[in-house]
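User: Structure please.
Assistant: Input sequence and predicted structure:
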Amino acid sequence: MKKYQCIECGANVLHLYRDYKADVIKIYHCESCNAVADKYIEYDPVIILLDALLLQPQAYRHLLINSQHESEWRLVFLLWICDAFAKLVSHRADLVITQQASTPANVNYINLGLELYLNFIIAAAELCIFMAFVVLMFAVQSLWETRSLQSLSIPLLSKAVILASMGRMLVIPVLLWDQSYSYVYGLLCQGFVCLSTLQALRVVNQGQRKTFWSLLAVIFGCLSQHQISHRLHEWFD
């Protein structure tokens, strides 16, 4: 039987609602806090995503634990494209500033396409290395606290990292409107993604000192992500 959680207090609940005929449902209340176990059952998906972007832990509990959707793997592909495109636009903006090449005649479209494919590789490598360090850190936590890996759920951790990376899409409109401050907006976007990932990992982390271990996972994951990106850029250049 699937385990659900109350989105308010995080306590385990057996059921979220009971479905009657004629599309009538009865929402269950949590026995620990007496609140509605999952209010997002009746919410529009857009509202849920907005609350997730506002770093609400209730929204993350609903999306990560109480939902059974498998669409996050489609989100991986979308984030992959957005991240590679953002890297391409940011890099081309830096070239315009450093080389003063602002006319379309200076653009080599063959090199531009090749650079986009290389950014696809870099974006995929960054995501994979970040997930690997998150899983590694949570494995260390599980071994440290329980001396076993039974509580380690790699699919759940991967889902948390993917959903928390939705903030990467926020940089796309900024890059299209104005490339002058792409570096600043990129840093702000990266900071927001780190905060989102920290919140998502705290939701799925059921161990002791969950904030501490989640923060370590985000820090080491971001550092390793930066290193792999720097090494790949040097190698491709």
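The mean pLDDT is 83.
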